[in-house]
Amino acid sequence: MFNDLMNQFWPATVDGLSLGAIYALLALGYTMVYGVLRLINFAHSEIFMIGTFASLAVVNLFGFSGVGGFALVGVVLVLAVAGALASGASAVALEYLAYRPLRRKGASRLAALISAIGASLFLQQLFARVLIPWWFDVPKEKGALPLQGHFVEREDLFAIGDFVVRNDKFIVFVGAIIMMVALDQFVSRTKLGRGIRATAQDPETSVLMGVNIDRIVTATFAIGGAMAGVAAALYMMRFEETDFFVGFLLGIKAFTAAVLGGIGNLRGALVGGMVLGLIEMYGSVMFGTEWQHVVAFTVLVLVLMFRPTGILGESLQQARV
Predict the structure, then answer these.
(1) What is the pLDDT of residue 2?
(2) For residues 185-215, b (16+ Cβ closer than 10 Å) or e, as one string?
(3) Can you give the pTM of this predicted structure?
(4) Sheet strands (E) in the chain
């Protein structure tokens, strides 16, 4: 068991960091919405799913095939912009249609949580039964993966011992780190970021100080959705497949990452995502790939039992420069 881990340490580490980077980007949406509204947005996984289909549409539209080298970076940027726009717009629409009416009526958080679950199921079935067959000419009963070819030319970049790091894994990791650092600085240094932190700390006082809560909530959903769209583009570049159910497990694991790092903490999402990705890959090597999901959810249970505030344990409003 441990010998297997030692023999596969570097491959598992690289795979864990690239997978954890996607978890971390997706976890930012859960963290931001929870920090501002104290709501677990379970429909965020479908916002990610929408981003994967936006990226897929761009690949099909431009006919990308066998892209490598610096051209791959350009393609990923195009996919990231498309995914961010589609997911960000979808997240704003979700907030406007599913959550804002409840907030204005003073509904309980339980009502908002049920609305989130309903929105998640609705978006899944909308894509499975209507949009996928319409866009990609796939039979309704199949709900298949419409991407059949490969558009990424996988190349070796550098070696760590006997293990060689591929370009797709490296781009995923670096791209996610850049986006998370940019978001952290945005929330810490900009006027809108200060408004988000103020609303997370004390919504009533923020209103008295002139903060527009609806604007802040819309911006929070838009930013979290955009991060999910970028995660979707990186996921498509890394795995080159999607379907209407793609966000389900990824969404739960991203939520696990947010809880592990400290729900409501942007830097905690980064730490939690990376740690969860590494734990998953190390667990797969030690116990077998069939235990990968079990390891991830065991981590969630243990964190909730012994450290429910997460590794960092800070909330969004405590973030400072």
Answers:
(1) 65
(2) eebeeeeebebbbbbbeebeebeeeebebee
(3) 0.91
(4) 156-160, 163-166
